[in-house]
Amino acid sequence: MNRNNDRHHTTARDAQHAHHGPAHGHRHTDTDIDWDAMAPLLEREAELGRPQYEEAARWIAGLREAHEVRRVLDIGSGPGVITCLLAEVFPEAEVVAVDGTEALLERARARAERLGLGGRVRTLRADIPDDLELLGGADLIWAGNSLHHMGDQRAVLAGFAESLRPGGTVALVEGGLPSRQLPRDIGIGRPGLEDRLDAIRADWFDSMRASLPGSTRETEDWRALIAAAGLEPQGTRSFLLDLPAPLSEPAREQVIAEFTRRRQSFEDVLTAEDIAVLDRLLDPEDPAGLRLRPDVFLLMARTVHLGRRGEDRRAGH
Strands, DSSP E only, in 70-120? Predict the structure, then answer.
């Protein structure tokens, strides 16, 4: 799991998710992402998305059949924003930030210390899927926008299932809706800029998936994949982040950073017209730019899929 978010943050976790982030121990050619350099972006994005993640975590904690949670694995933890949130929601648990990039794990440790969680938050440098055996047993495995960075998602999910203690849960943050930050018609260029950026990102995502070692195409029916791993599907819910205009300064900075990344990453496939529009959007002195325009917002949805290991399965950990 070399840090690439994606969603995730994409997360930043991937070319458009940039959120809670993937973790994979291999590099790709044109899909390489410098996750160390992206750490501040990942942190800010996860902090802005905290309401979504906290609602999802409290949903898990409040399930009728909720198992006592003593150990949590945050797969693809990045700088540890969600790791620490999980430690707050599950106050009796040891929470382990699992990632392949030491610099990000250092940030996770520092954040835990600042928040007074250092006694319960620890880190594990591991490349998934190669190091699945290092994970140990867990009552909750949180994989936030990280499974899609594994070539054989089915096999990795089965590995997660084996790491679960009886009654434990795996939470996959996958899917949802792309973020929206601008109106369809922004008054400059051809309307529908974000739709075109989404189409480019979809092609990027396909290329990224195809380049992964052992890449296997799967129908993204997460409930079916959870069942195929021997787990009982517990439900699926989506969580909305709705930050209307006018944005707070941190949220506006995040939008600017995201459009800057898109401008840099997609330059070779963008039209000249869209490049010119993006340059205006990124000009801090342009009244039509992201820094000054009053109609910038942030709207997105993340989807969480749960699978539970039965109590009667043999406890292997």
Answer: 71-75, 94-99
